[in-house]
Amino acid sequence: MKISKMAMGLVGLAACVGLAIAAEMGKSDKKMTPEQEAMMQKCMEAGKPGAGHKVLEGMVGSWSHTVKMWMEPNGQPDISKGTSEIRWILGGRFLEHKVTGMAMNQPFEGLGIIGFDNVTQEYQGIWTDSMSTAMMMGTGTYDAATKTINDKGTFSCPMVGKKCAYRSTTRLVDKDHFTFEFFCAGPEGKEMRMMEIQYVRSKGKSQ
Fold first, then answer.
1. Is 113 found in the same domain as 156?
2. Cα dist from 85 to 27, 48, 99, 111, 170, whole Å
3. 166 assigned to some structural domain
4. Is 68 within 8 Å of 78 (Cβ atoms)?
5. pLDDT at 3
6. pTM
7. At what angle do helices 34-46 and 5-25 cross, to 10 degrees?
8. 105 and 18 share a domain?
9. Coil, strand, or helix at residue 13?
10. Is residue 38 situated within a structural domain?
């Protein structure tokens, strides 16, 4: 029977957690071997926020945002506004992004989780909102020269009834501004920009 990569990952995680708990609570009946100590140390180091997380610090805070959405490449965008609250959770390991506002002339709520995986050295994110029953998931890398996180992933598209690929960019303009752009296949199958969000830090709430 083949074991999936996810299952193997969960087994590895369980081993790390078990070793860490045993060390912290002193319940191990015998001294750990050098191999076990090395494994525990590696797990503990991988679980600490690091340089990859520091990149996300500029997104923390209270924001107002303007959303532009296009249904066709040369069409007029639907424009809406809202607010975002972005904060660290789980000891600075992940960002929680909560959104309220309007979309397509109706109330809108969204929730995203963004993090950096120290093991794979990639950014990871999930997104869900009040206009879908699916979670959008993606992974990406950071370009320090342009201060941009480039992300790729999939989302469930009700138009075609299946998962579709997307790419997005999050550019950290300065301490009071960042932008998000979302691209996927348009009506003719060619990539087009579907969404642009401009974030402006709320006055009096600079980092």
1. yes
2. 41, 24, 7, 10, 16
3. yes
4. yes
5. 44
6. 0.83
7. 110
8. no
9. helix
10. yes
Predicted confidence at residue 15, as pLDDT, reads 54
Tokens, residue 52: 């990859």
Do 176 and 80 lie in a common domain? yes
How far CA 87 is from CA of 17, 81, 115, 136, in Å, comes to 26, 20, 12, 20
Residues 6+ apart with CB under 8 A from 158: none
* pLDDT tens-place string over residues 83-105: 999 999 999 999 999 999 988 88
Neighbours of 194 (CB within 10 A): 20
| Amino acid at site 99 | V
In the three-class reduction of DSSP (H, G, I as helix; E, B as strand; rest coil), residue 67 is classed as: strand
Asked if residue 104 is part of any domain, the answer here is yes
The predicted pLDDT at position 138 comes to: 98
Torsion angles phi and psi, residue 10, rounded to 5 = -65, -35
Tell whether the torsion through CA atoms of 96, 100, 105 and 106 is positive or negative.
Answer: positive
Question: Would you say how long the chain is, in residues?
Answer: 207
- Do 56 and 40 sit in the same domain of this protein? no
Q: Are residues 128 and 150 in the same domain?
A: yes
Domain count, the chain: 2
Q: What span, in angstroms and rounded, lies between the C-alpha atoms of 104 and 89?
A: 30
Please give the helix or strand (H or E) that residue 99 lies within, else none.
strand 94-103
Ranges in the chain, pLDDT < 50: 1-8, 10-11, 25, 206-207
